[in-house]
């Protein structure tokens, strides 16, 4: 069996990739059912938050020949920046390949999901030399997930997961998750491996690669800052530990310069520009809106639910960490510190309201937990392997652990497919919020595509929240509001409500549209419902109908 280790690992990698992408493939296979329902199939991802269209709007900017990203979910004029530029360049790749923006987004998942699994394999083959344990540790790291959550619904017992709303904690969804988060995990663990676990042995090797590592670190900081912050925290703590050890413990040995340590210090120093850029750029509109949103609506870590959602591996990983420290297994220290730093920053940002604490759990925490948990199981096996009764209990535990976690993955798959089926079958309301809970009406999407082909993409559109969320992603226009990145989101929500409820006089509405730089008004089912299906032009005679279909009117604003 062991001579087939590599083929087995490759088969496992491909299996888990297929397993994690199966909901996407299933959704594509169900798309013909929408034609008879007059709804458009659009391939989306991570449906539970209104962020997908935000990323897609940046992807579309890559098709518009932009080199810097702008925020199209707000109407204030501003310069471009390199914030969220990752998706813009995914769009440029998609433009070269001549694929739709939605598929350019999916391309990010297709690229970085296998890279994440390869990085996990790289780490595991370093830590475990025995082929059987390499296979077992890989499986444990990948599948470890939530404790079973037993619930009773309509008199029937069902098994689900804890903290289902946080997709990144799900053992199935996290393998093919949001592209920029996958990028952060892949690059940060690659750098952790190269800088602390499998360190360069010569100055030449270090000098040749250090510049490349610094570029990767800065890219990570711009794409997914929590990954770089966590990595730098680990590197700094390792340097402090090494300094203390050399200064206070090894007193009688002359100090020696560690070339790898020098490279680490350079990387820490020269990767700060990315974080400084984000710090200063987010002090100004519109980029400050996202930081303000996290300040006002922080996603905290519900510790009890998080422990249950992470599952038994959190206890196995903690015990494995303690055992590695007791056995002085220094090679495990970077992984141990990754766990420590994750919870330190989650705690810090629970007090300092600059970032949502829960974001720091998206840095790939399952990887060190899985490896350290596997190390614990390996050491237990070494201790009991000559005790037959203990061996039987141990093997029974491992088999049950694997089967239960595979069942939890199957539960996640069933849950995702059920959600897709509900989306396919849903008809009410005509236009939903959150946006991705239903497929959009064909006529509604036709109106948005009309905007793309018939209006300049630097013009501002006024619409209710769902159309406002879709328009930047599918037509490329700016909107007055439509996502949490909108400047003064609460004020604009109130103003849009007043406008579509008819609570503004004609002069007030004209001033509102002028101040908001609004050139077009999107009047669809959600907007019509606010006005009790009355005609908007009767209230505001200075607007002109320029497009209509059974679902949507589009007006231009006269100056």
TrEMBL record:
The keyword Cell membrane does not apply. This is Glycosyltransferase RgtA/B/C/D-like domain-containing protein. Keywords: Membrane, Transmembrane, Transmembrane helix. The chain crosses the membrane at residues 6-25, 107-128, 134-154, 175-193, 213-244, 265-285, 305-325, 332-352, 358-377, 389-409. It comes from Candidatus Gottesmanbacteria bacterium RIFCSPHIGHO2_02_FULL_39_14.
